[in-house]
Design a protein that fits this description.
- This protein is about 20% helix and about 20% strand.
- The chain is an alpha+beta fold.
- Helix 3 crosses helix 4.
- The longest helix has 18 residues, at about 100-115.
- It is globular.
- It starts with 8 loop residues before the first strand and ends with a strand.
Length: about 350
């Protein structure tokens, strides 16, 4: 069953980032610790880097290869545990298990491999820490903001930095949150910024943190340094990607179509005059409405369009043909075919 949750609430990461001042907090001690403002004492842990599994070989134009990749890498990375509960009395986020971090990282690399990168993203300890403290702020205040005020419970400078550099989700965590970032439904997400940060052509290092009850997730994606850029660079960055698409990725957890927004990105390209035409084999033209073409600053420049009515879409063997015109190097022609994974 697919894991997308349409009710996920997600805030888009911003390119212009607020600077944060140090709050002078130190490791907690036992007793009644202050939990708000610049006096908050945040429990500290030793964070470590996270390395994922090497993604299997993938040929997007080979249906069997795509199905095998989905079943053996996407499904194998599903979380079987929740993050630990937050200790609200001490601003203690608890620590995510290595398994949760690795599964979440594998999910990021699954999507990157699907669009043509080598899937070599790693999580860096510093960014894991900042993302985790950002998720703590969101959970402690049941909020979702890139710029938490210093008056917030469990505020820290590291957490504020994490909030301003991360994709944020409420109501979902870990691998499920990554699915939601890629889907990028909801009002205000027409530019699919979460998707674009994860699928950025220059990404190499990220970080992740999450808390349970209330469920909050932070994926640190902006302004990271270090790591090795993908040696595989696709000609364009499309979601859904050219080739076969595992059908569950177009459906919600109830099995209904949920993939509303399609995107086509290419570094540095001007999409302001771009057009998109879609057809479906056996059905003719598909109405595609462009909803974002000049919203630059979220990863790579990207054209985004929506299908008017998806209620009857995404059946097994449905093939969509896409033509992008009005851009340098174009036209770009590719197809996407839905593949049942059972």
């Amino acid at each position: 069953m697919n894991t997308f949750l349409n009710s996920i609430s997600i805030v888009m990461s911003l390119m212009l980032l607020a600077s944060c001042s140090d709050d002078g907090s130190s490791a907690p001690t036992s007793g009644n610790n202050p939990t708000s403002g610049n006096d908050a004492i945040i429990a500290d842990y030793t964070y470590s880097d996270t390395k994922g599994d090497n993604p299997p070989t993938l040929n997007n134009t080979d249906k069997a290869s795509v199905i095998d990749f989905y079943n053996n890498f996407y499904n194998a990375g599903a979380n079987s545990e929740n993050p630990p509960l937050r200790d609200s009395s001490k601003c203690d986020p608890n620590k995510l298990s290595d398994k949760i971090q690795k599964n979440t990282l594998n999910r990021v690399n699954f999507y990157r491999k699907m669009v043509g990168f080598d899937g070599g993203i790693e999580f860096k300890a510093e960014y894991n820490m900042k993302a985790h403290k950002a998720a703590l702020i969101m959970a402690a205040n049941n909020a979702l903001t890139h710029y938490p005020p210093a008056s917030y419970t469990c505020y820290s400078a590291d957490g504020a930095n994490g909030a301003s550099h991360s994709n944020l989700a409420s109501g979902s965590m870990n691998t499920f949150a990554v699915d939601g970032y890629i889907l990028d439904n909801g009002a205000g997400n027409q530019a699919v910024g979460h998707r674009r940060w994860i699928l950025s052509s220059t990404a190499s290092i990220m970080g992740h943190g999450a808390l349970f009850i209330p469920s909050k997730d932070a994926l640190y994606v902006v302004g990271t340094t270090g790591g090795v850029k993908s040696t595989a660079q696709p000609d364009f960055i499309a979601w859904p990607p050219a080739g076969y698409l595992p059908r569950p990725l177009a459906l919600n957890w109830m099995g209904s179509p949920s993939l509303q927004r399609w995107s086509f990105g290419k570094p540095g390209v001007d999409f302001s005059t771009a057009t998109v035409a879609m057809t479906k084999d056996g059905a003719g033209a598909v109405t595609a409405n462009i909803v974002s073409s000049t919203d630059n600053g979220y990863g790579d420049n990207t054209l985004v369009w929506e299908i008017n009515d998806i209620s009857g879409e995404y059946k097994d063997d449905d093939r969509y043909n896409i033509i992008i015109n009005g851009v340098s190097g174009g036209p770009y022609n590719y197809w996407v075919e839905i593949a049942d994974v059972n």
